[in-house]
Design goal:
single chain, 20% strand, 8-stranded mixed beta sheet, alpha+beta, 18 strands
């Protein structure tokens, strides 16, 4: 959501920001609509003043014993005109809100967010760990099916495509990863664990930007609620419609939840295996900060996510997304991509994003600094800490033993696996 005052004050800067999103100038239409709405508001104030004067005349006429019918008829006519104009003002306000809500966030300037057309123009800023390309390395679904612990056909029988049944020690490994991630983010990195609802209302989905733009990617219930596509939605909205105590900032929340997405825009992509499913698990991180602290918090969040892969000893690289690949509600995004031997490439396993006040304006989430009368919008950030299913893929492929087809257990996960050293076919 954008601040109309900012657009009024500097329309050229706003249009330049939208141009980086490959959009035509937006300010002319926005400002024309805004001017029309403000003109209606001004005329309403004039009519209100006129009505007040006429109402005073009625009292004076009646007090003097005169006939006030003419003045009363005039007041009634003014009331009807006001009612029509109030409705016109509401309609114009809703139209303006719809336009402002449909436009993406203003990104940070280059080179923080590099200009580019698509993912090929993203900029690598870090590589951790050594990789050994192997064209014969099996993919995770080949490993899992050979172990008899990963069943896509059985899941399809129950739910259709893009679901999976995990069983035995592989199911336990997924759970171990989630517990390890959650413990890392709470015990080591200072996030507060939350167990949130998985069904939310429309206002909550609007607040973090899933609606209305990404309507087709969401699962809606018959009673108008929505299955969460990520815990970011609920964790960020904890502060919606509040003026939070500045002393409580930054707030850092984490949650382990299932996530539900239709993947409507990814037809034909990653149809094999667990990379892109309708239901998956994720440990999410969300931070609520003062504006001046959000950049440092973004870098901190990135390190919290990277630390999970380093503890698991999984090679990865970190990139900054370019303008053509940066998400709708985001000012800047770091993607962490884990090495997947089976695909002989890096694949995204976490996105850490800063949204500025974009979501806060949609949620009306504010704070009041000490000594200040006016409340300010908070800044919001979110990141995966990590995507559990994709991390399971990375562990399976990086810890695969070609001798017997088993999977070695990373050292940090052994306590969560009851001391198990290796998953083998039973």
């Amino acid at each position: 959501m954008h601040d109309i005052k900012t657009i009024r004050d500097n329309p050229d800067a706003f249009d330049a920001a939208m141009k980086r999103r490959k959009l035509e100038p937006q300010s002319p239409a926005i400002l024309a609509l805004d001017e029309k709405r403000r003109a209606v508001q001004t005329e309403l104030q004039v009519i209100q003043a006129e009505r007040n004067e006429k109402s005073k005349e009625i009292g004076a006429i009646k007090k003097s014993g005169g006939d006030a019918q003419g003045a009363m008829d005039a007041v009634s006519a003014l009331k009807e005109k006001m009612s029509a104009m109030e409705e016109q003002g509401r309609a114009l306000g809703e139209e303006l809100k719809t336009i402002l809500s449909s436009l993406p966030n203003v990104m940070k300037d280059a080179p923080e967010v590099p200009d580019g057309a698509d993912e090929d123009d993203n900029v690598e800023i870090k590589v951790w760990g050594e990789v050994t390309p192997d064209e014969n390395a099996p993919e995770h679904y080949e490993i899992g099916e050979a172990l008899g612990m990963m069943d896509f056909e059985g899941a399809a029988k129950l739910s259709g495509s893009r679901f999976v049944l995990l069983s035995g020690q592989l199911a336990r490994l997924e759970r171990a990863l989630a517990q390890f991630m959650l413990n890392t983010q709470t015990d080591k990195n200072g996030y507060t664990e939350v167990s949130p609802p998985l069904l939310v209302n429309t206002d909550v989905m609007y607040g973090t930007g899933q609606l209305p733009k990404f309507h087709d990617d969401q699962f809606e219930t018959t009673d108008g609620r929505w299955l969460v596509p990520t815990a970011e939605v609920v964790l960020t909205n904890i502060v919606r419609e509040e003026i939070v105590d500045v002393e409580t900032l930054p707030r850092r929340y984490t949650a382990f939840t299932p996530c539900f997405r239709k993947e409507a825009g990814s037809a034909g992509r990653d149809t094999r295996g667990m990379l892109r499913q309708h239901q998956f698990y994720k440990v999410e991180m969300v931070s609520i900060t003062k504006p001046e602290d959000s950049d440092a918090e973004h870098d901190r969040m990135l390190k919290c996510a990277e630390g999970v892969l380093e503890a698991l000893k999984i090679p990865y690289r970190t990139i900054v997304l370019c303008t053509g690949d940066t998400g709708f509600g985001v000012r800047k995004t770091y993607d962490i991509e884990a090495w997947m031997p089976g695909q002989n490439t890096y694949r995204e396993i976490s996105s850490c994003s800063t949204c500025g006040d974009f979501q806060a304006r949609r949620m009306n989430a504010r704070f009041k600094a000490k000594g200040e009368k006016k409340a300010q919008f908070v800044h919001t950030l979110n990141g995966s800490g990590l995507a559990v299913g994709r991390c399971l893929i990375a562990v399976m492929e990086n810890y695969y033993d070609p001798i017997d087809g088993g999977i070695f257990i990373p050292e940090v996960l052994k306590p969560y696996m009851g001391g198990l050293e290796k998953i083998v076919k039973g």
